[in-house]
TrEMBL record:
Residues reported to bind substrate: 10, 32, 60-69, 115, 176, 185, 205-206
Annotated protein name in UniProt: Orotidine 5'-phosphate decarboxylase
Ranges where the Orotidine 5'-phosphate decarboxylase domain occurs: 4-221
Listed EC numbers: 4.1.1.23
Source organism per UniProt: Devosia ginsengisoli
Lineage of source species: Bacteria, Pseudomonadati, Pseudomonadota, Alphaproteobacteria, Hyphomicrobiales
Length: 232
């Protein structure tokens, strides 16, 4: 169960990131390193150190570029021993990422639609489809590209599962424990409901790292996740 909870190290200081990891101890063994930590806290080196310590690392870099650049970038991340990496779920990008990850254990995830976006945001970005329609399209393309999984809102997890089948990972950010504030998330869901909907991994940031007792917050979320599995 602990391996399905991914804590987002959304901090700008290497010292603060290490403090969070220390406070969480054995309660958490999987960490996400996104832009803030990657660029502000020497996140690549931090990630490699976490991997050496037996932790799992998810580099949330959302790669998107010409095919060769994506392929070589993914290959470099794969060499680190990272567990997961995100790319944008455009067909060419996903196919290039699979070439870069070939021969490694890296699970490449396609980012469908950001959980901070709703139908109005998708329309403003120029897409003719609504949020659900765009996620469905990206899920089909991810399945055809053969990547390891998708990042999607828990609200679309059940739909995505019907499209991609039982084996692909579905990683859901925007997770908020029952009773917590949504912040900038527009398509959030509680941990238990997200797993019941078909998610395989849950990404949680502020509800854990900003808590007075991060370990207690993580254990509370794990308890909610257990409820979701029993319902599922």
């Amino acid at each position: 169960m602990a391996g399905q909870l991914i804590v987002a190290l959304d901090v700008s200081s290497r010292g603060r990131a290490e403090e969070i990891v220390s406070l969480l101890g054995d309660a958490v063994d999987f960490y996400k390193i996104g832009y803030q930590c990657f660029y502000g806290a020497d996140g690549f080196a931090l990630g490699k150190d976490l991997l050496k310590a037996g932790k799992k690392v998810f580099f949330d870099l959302k790669l998107l570029d010409i095919d060769n650049t994506v392929e070589q970038g993914v290959a470099a991340i794969a060499e680190s021993g990272a567990t997961m990496l995100t790319v944008h779920a455009y067909p060419q990008c996903m196919r290039a990422s699979m070439r870069g990850a070939a021969g490694s254990d890296l699970c490449v995830l396609g980012v469908s639609v950001l959980t901070s976006m709703d139908d109005a945001d998708v329309a403003e970005a120029g897409f003719a489809r609504d949020t659900a329609g765009l996620v469905a399209l990206r899920a089909q393309q991810a399945r055809d590209a053969g990547i390891g999984g998708l990042v999607a809102s828990a609200h679309e997890a059940e739909m995505v599962r019907t499209i991609v089948g039982p084996k692909m990972a579905i990683v859901t950010p925007g997770i908020r424990p029952a009773g917590s504030a949504l912040g900038d998330q527009k398509r959030a869901m509680t941990p238990g409901d997200a797993l019941a909907a078909g998610a395989t991994h849950l990404v949680v940031g502020r509800p854990v790292i900003a808590a007075a007792d991060p370990a207690a917050a993580a254990r509370s979320i794990l308890a909610e996740m257990n409820t979701g599995l029993r319902v599922a």
